Amino acid sequence: MSRSSASFDLLDERVRRWIWRQGWTSLKDIQENAIPVVLAGNSDVIISASTAGGKTEAAFLPILTSILQNGKLCGYQVLYVSPLKALINDQYRRLSDMTAEMGIDVIPWHGDINSARKNKSLKNPNGIVIITPESLESFLINRERFVKGAFSSLQYVVIDELHSFIGTERGKQLQSLLSRIEQVTRRLIPRIAMSATFSDYDAVKYFLRNDGSIPCAIPPPGESNHEIKILVKEYISSKDADISIPISQEIYNNLRGSNNLVFTNSRGAAEEFAVQLSDMCEENGVPNEFRVHHGSISKIERESVERDLQRGEHPVTALCTSTLELGVDIGKVKSIAQIGTAISVSGLRQRLGRSGRRDEPSILRVFSIEGNNDGLLHDLRSSLVQNIAIIELMREHRYETPSINKYHFSTLIQQILAVIAQFGGFYPKDGWTLLCQNGAFKNVTPELFLELLKSLGEKEVISQLNTGQIVVGKLGERILKSPDFYVAFVSPIDLTVINKANAKRIGMIQYVPPVGKLIILSAKRWLVESFDEATSKIYVSRIKSGGAAMFAGEGVDIDCIIVEKMQEIYMADTIYPYLDERTGAKEHLNHSRIFFHHNNLGETSFLQYGNEDYFFNWAGTKANRTLALLAQYCLNKQCDYGSFYVSNLIAEDIELLRQANKPDLVELASILPRQLKTFQKYDYLLSDKLLDIEYANTYLDLWSD
């Protein structure tokens, strides 16, 4: 080390030797600050720093020191949970390099790792096991006799990319799994969380350990003077002009010759732009540098894109979705682009963090798209202003508050069946104590738990013996035998697309296209030849032109922090230097502000636009969904809503709603039909009462002035 480091001196000599071999002249601030608290081993730790900011080393330099100082023990010392198989493979390579001369075992554990390798590890469990939540669930159920011994020496649980778990079914499943492990080992095990996009640390602490049974340390990440370059261009979509052509031309002109990631909001958009860019390369007689990467293309193609990006032997620009948002090792990426409207601050920050490594600036291009026939939204340039709002919040290091108080009844159903499969059954009080009182589902009361058991009993998911013990029922047995039982979330119905010429798997789509239809997949055009219903396989052949991408999609709720920032932008006169003048972004923002002030929207919440009335409350999607339902319930009015407005409401309506005897959110949810409230995997097993409670808790929010 070129300067003295108290933290460096705390590390085992073998770990220090590894650091010297890397040629480091100093530890990064997050590493300097994290090493003492992780090494102490008496608290949970949240390690938050930018992508490539040294988080993995901040966690594992002290963890490896602890393992080395304690000597070889029987059982894994570290349980490392990761959201993706690809991430596990990356971290396995990384940790194997770190531990090569330390005698510490590292075992990757997921569906693609063969059983022989896993069984060999189980005979002498030691070191670090890297695993997904789904594989950990399978481990607890199917290898129950190994669990106690395998985790008897556990010193740390490490959770990578924690932000990707918070508020999701997988996250609730992971919380429950960690709780179940601690109840088997009968001791608290420090949890180390890593992510790049935290701001509300209280919510993160609660997610990490919801009973506060041990303290949680947050080492300072240190000051970052990393340079960020941003450019926002705006394009107006219309029936007469295909804006994908000028956007593709910009990408072609500016990104060829280097490695880049271009994010879209859907797999279909990624495919459309990738194939258009491929056409441009062919027309200009140059090699095609543009590839596509998302969850529906074949694993072979995804890994090929990742490998080519990582090697850097020739330029690759990947058109991708959130699949490349997480920290899969893709080497040096020059820039990031976002096509369309960014939908979250944390997501855009995570994406931006993929570029600008090795002391180079992070570069972000945003291609904002505005509809020409959207009326009010067009006049307000809502997509442009939303993009600006998210960029400004990102620059201020302000992110969405994680959703940590959902009931997650669907995941609780899965965990009930998992516990029955693991232990054979449970008594209702013991089940509630295990999963709720001392587990992940703390907001589920005994009354709600019994209501859930009753609902599951009526549908024969579970059964109750004369002794009172809960065991698996007929339907429950079928669910447990399902190959995707370990997955807590809904998997889309995927149809496999096969190249008829060579029988190779291209990827998946979510709809059955008619024979003769042209589709786009894996950045290539295909003609649908036939569909085999028995095997859910679609056979296709290559074509040169035409086609459309076919994938399932879903809307996303916009957080109130974003729309509040949008209102602030409309009301201000700030000039944002990153707005491109050539595409009119600066001019269009100015026009939107003129429209805003001309209609006095800084003073009033009401606007008549054409034949429609609008109420602006800048409260976010959940609050406006709630307000629209209240109008239906109390006023018998049907209202559309967005993230910052509700239509068909005038001042008198709002006054009536203020004075009305309003229902609670659960009663409000009851006016919707079941099919509009069934989103999570096992929601169909819930009683109407529980489904309404879940919907109200997850998708509604009280509106206030």
What do these coordinates show?
The chain has 705 residues and is an alpha/beta fold. It has 5 domains: 212 residues, Rossmann fold, CATH 3.40.50.300; 168 residues, Rossmann fold, CATH 3.40.50.300; 73 residues, Arc Repressor Mutant, subunit A; 48 residues, no CATH class; 140 residues, no CATH class. The protein has 26 helices and 23 strands. It has a 7-stranded parallel β-sheet, with helices on both faces. Strands 8-13-12-9-11-10 form a 6-stranded parallel β-sheet, with helices on both faces. A 5-stranded mixed β-sheet has the order 17-16-20-19-18. The longest helix is centred in the N-terminal third of the chain and has 17 residues. The mean pLDDT is 91.
CATH architecture of the largest domain: 3-Layer(aba) Sandwich
Runs with pLDDT <50, length 5+? none
Highest-level CATH class of the largest domain: Alpha Beta
Content-based structural category? alpha/beta
Quick overview of this protein structure:
This protein is 41% helix and 17% strand.
Helix and strand arrangement:
Elements: H1 6-10, H2 13-21, H3 29-40, E1 44-48, H4 55-70, E2 75-81, H5 85-99, E3 106-109, H6 115-123, E4 126-131, H7 133-142, H8 144-150, E5 156-159, H9 169-185, E6 191-195, H10 201-208, E7 216-217, E8 228-237, H11 244-255, E9 260-263, H12 267-283, E10 290-293, H13 299-311, E11 317-320, E12 335-339, H14 345-352, E13 362-371, H15 376-379, H16 382-395, H17 409-423, H18 428-437, H19 446-458, E14 462-464, E15 470-472, H20 474-481, E16 495-499, E17 505-509, E18 518-521, E19 524-532, E20 537-542, H21 560-571, H22 585-598, E21 606-609, E22 612-616, H23 621-635, E23 645-647, H24 651-659, H25 665-669, H26 688-699
